[in-house]
């Protein structure tokens, strides 16, 4: 007697570029799924997935100008979870890393697990991974603060200029409606960012507007300019603002003492 | 029959040898691959906006979180 297959979910990332950043395991999961839901930003990447598994369903049709993305994400989550409930082996593939700046991936996993069914996420190559490679910035060198542009403006965060600042979605800075699908309304947000940053950095501090390469025909877009020109830059929806560190802060002698160390000892250990 | 630009992009993104050849000589590599003249012209003119428009999924970006 055949028993009904229990549904399951694996969420995967296809990388930022069109084909080459997909891991071997991700490809295998896509290939072996009963159905693949895809939220991928370009048609070449979509076609790559469709060639691996023709039974794909797009999620991008749910985006509409003016509709809150909160609603869109709920609808995406419902599509994915409904297929799992129906007993299918489901793969949800998003571009980049499926857990970074992706709401429905986390929501779907949570809901599927709450139903007592198997759900997991596989890592993918994110824009941050591309940024580290393209700009040669090691997030561990000075420490790193990484945040979404509008969230930082809305909330009372503390910025540490000794750490590298990675500010995502700068092209939507100050956009509150979640209904905007272009970067034409960020001027006021950029002016505000310039003000905030100039409280902590010199006006001449070099900052970087970065876009990872989404197509293999060309490289990343990297624009360097002084902080005082930030308000006049023209970011796109995939631009990231990077503010390099002012350098390491002073040693914290109180903590070093509690650890039984001196500044000189630490410096000597690092030399050897 | 000319090969498609989509196939070229996929191959370029997963074939190190083709990528190396492209970086050395983009137009010659595109021609040798068998792209149509119009597609080769896009590469010759570095008309990346046209390429992006051809393949982008309008409205799918960005991945905004709630605040």
UniProtKB/TrEMBL annotation, chain A:
<dbReference type="GO" id="GO:0008168">
    <property type="term" value="F:methyltransferase activity"/>
</dbReference>
<dbReference type="InterPro" id="IPR014777">
    <property type="entry name" value="4pyrrole_Mease_sub1"/>
</dbReference>
<feature type="domain" description="Tetrapyrrole methylase">
    <location>
        <begin position="9"/>
        <end position="216"/>
    </location>
</feature>
<dbReference type="Pfam" id="PF00590">
    <property type="entry name" value="TP_methylase"/>
</dbReference>
<keyword id="KW-0808">Transferase</keyword>
<dbReference type="InterPro" id="IPR000878">
    <property type="entry name" value="4pyrrol_Mease"/>
</dbReference>
<dbReference type="InterPro" id="IPR035996">
    <property type="entry name" value="4pyrrol_Methylase_sf"/>
</dbReference>
<dbReference type="GO" id="GO:0032259">
    <property type="term" value="P:methylation"/>
</dbReference>
<keyword id="KW-0489">Methyltransferase</keyword>
<protein>
    <submittedName>
        <fullName>Methylase</fullName>
    </submittedName>
</protein>
Automatic annotation (TrEMBL), chain B:
<protein>
    <recommendedName>
        <fullName>Extradiol ring-cleavage dioxygenase LigAB LigA subunit domain-containing protein</fullName>
    </recommendedName>
</protein>
<dbReference type="InterPro" id="IPR036622">
    <property type="entry name" value="LigA_sf"/>
</dbReference>
């Amino acid at each position: 007697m055949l028993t009904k297959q229990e549904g399951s979910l694996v969420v995967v990332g296809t990388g930022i570029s069109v084909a080459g950043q997909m891991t071997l395991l991700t490809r295998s999961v896509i290939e072996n799924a009963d159905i693949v839901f895809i939220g991928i930003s370009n048609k070449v990447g979509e076609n790559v997935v469709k060639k691996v598994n023709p039974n794909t369903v797009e999620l991008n049709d749910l985006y509409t100008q003016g509709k809150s993305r909160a609603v869109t994400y709920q609808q995406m989550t419902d599509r994915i979870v409904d297929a799992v409930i129906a007993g299918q082996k489901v793969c949800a593939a998003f571009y980049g890393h499926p857990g970074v700046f992706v709401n429905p991936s986390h929501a779907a996993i949570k809901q599927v697990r709450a139903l007592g069914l198997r759900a997991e996420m596989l890592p993918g190559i994110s824009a941050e991974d591309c940024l580290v490679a393209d700009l040669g910035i090691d997030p561990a060198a000075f420490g790193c603060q990484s945040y979404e542009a509008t969230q930082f403006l809305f909330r009372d965060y503390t910025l540490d200029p000794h750490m590298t600042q990675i500010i995502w979605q700068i092209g939507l800075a100050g956009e509150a409606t979640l209904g905007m699908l272009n970067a034409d309304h960020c001027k006021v947000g950029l002016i505000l960012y310039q003000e905030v940053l100039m409280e902590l950095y010199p006006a001449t501090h070099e900052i970087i507007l970065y876009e990872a390469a989404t197509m293999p025909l060309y490289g990343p877009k990297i624009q360097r300019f002084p902080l005082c020109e930030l308000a006049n830059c023209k970011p796109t929806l995939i631009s990231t603002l990077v503010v390099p560190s002012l350098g390491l802060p002073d040693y914290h002698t109180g903590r070093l003492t509690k650890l039984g160390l001196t500044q000189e000892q630490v410096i000597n250990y690092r030399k050897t | 029959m000319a090969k498609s630009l989509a196939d070229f992009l996929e191959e370029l993104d997963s074939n190190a040898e083709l990528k190396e050849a492209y970086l050395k000589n983009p137009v010659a590599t595109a021609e040798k691959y068998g792209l149509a003249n119009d597609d080769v012209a896009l590469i010759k003119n570095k008309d990346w906006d046209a390429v992006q428009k051809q393949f982008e999924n309008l409205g799918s970006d960005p991945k905004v979180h709630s605040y």
